[in-house]
Amino acid sequence: MPAATYSLDVLDPGTLRGSGDQIARALPPGKTGGIPQHDEETHALSLHGISLSFGGVAALVDVDLSVEPGEIRAIIGPNGAGKSSLINVISGVYRSNHGHVRIGSHTYRHVPTGRLASLGVARTFQNLALFKGLSVIDNVIAGRAYTVGSSFAEQILGLGRARREEADARERAARIIGFLHLDQVSDRLVGTLPYGLQKRVELARALVAEPKVLLLDEPMAGMTASEKNDMADFIRTARDQYDTTVILIEHDIGVVMQLSDRIAVLDYGRKIADGSPDEIRSDERVIDAYLGVVAENEDGEGI
Ligand SMILES: Nc1ncnc2c1ncn2[C@@H]1O[C@H](COP(=O)(O)OP(=O)(O)OP(=O)(O)O)[C@@H](O)[C@H]1O
């Protein structure tokens, strides 16, 4: 979970200045003060001209991306291509140098991390970010933390609203745990579970927030082939059942090709292709920059 907090440094579309909330209130849905719309109202999420650099290193260069509701969109590319940076810009962990992010009807120069849950965005991390000393169910309940309306005092004192919210969170968490076939380990401490199951717990914790947009940073890293297949099935079913849009980074090209509706390819921070799995598979630039290299390393498997 990102520990840092960030100021609301939000879009100034020329005539408007102010916080993200001010801008969101000032602009009716679909209006972004002169910024091109590109049918944005139909997009679950879109990025426009995103550039990000770290010192002299250009992590992202003028990246555009539009993701439709209900789509499973993979972001692929060689190591260091900028995939995680892109997810981190979408989730407000990184502040881009240029460009803006549109989530639903809200447009941001810097997405306010603290408002992600209320914007309907949840994410998982490349390296697990779970509470290892807590049980599976308690980790999943933690995914509802941003949705509670009761005050800290109400929670400490176990007052009415806090008690109802806790019961509701527990019930929703139990439902997701059942959905992801984690019932058998619901009371186990997360730290004692095999890695593949921990990755599934992280998915459960993101899903329990009932996100409109789910960002998955390498959800299958370190898994066996059969664990990856299970995870791919869970992601697909989660998309269908919870009506969510999924953006995922994944290195296993075989899984990506089967799971994704569309795939965006990054290379040296630039988007070099964006299309259906078939289009990406036969794209010469992608083969040169990435797929050819993956095929060589994996002896041709998986593509
Ligand atoms: N916090 C940071 N500080 C400095 N440089 C960074 C930081 N985060 C990313 N970078 C640099 O930005 C570039 C893109 O990195 P990023 O992690 O986004 O790539 P990636 O495609 O996710 O790579 P991988 O597949 O290895 O995870 C790399 O050159 C990386 O070294």
TrEMBL record:
The keyword ATP-binding applies. The keyword Signal does not apply. One of its GO terms (cellular component) is plasma membrane. Transmembrane segments: none annotated. Keywords: ATP-binding, Nucleotide-binding, Plasmid, Transport. One of its GO terms (molecular function) is ATP binding. SUPFAM superfamilies: P-loop containing nucleoside triphosphate hydrolases (SSF52540). InterPro entries: AAA+_ATPase, ABC_AA/LPS_Transport, ABC_transporter-like_ATP-bd, BCA_ABC_TP_C, P-loop_NTPase. It comes from the Bacteria. This is ABC transporter ATP-binding protein. It comes from Rhizobium jaguaris.
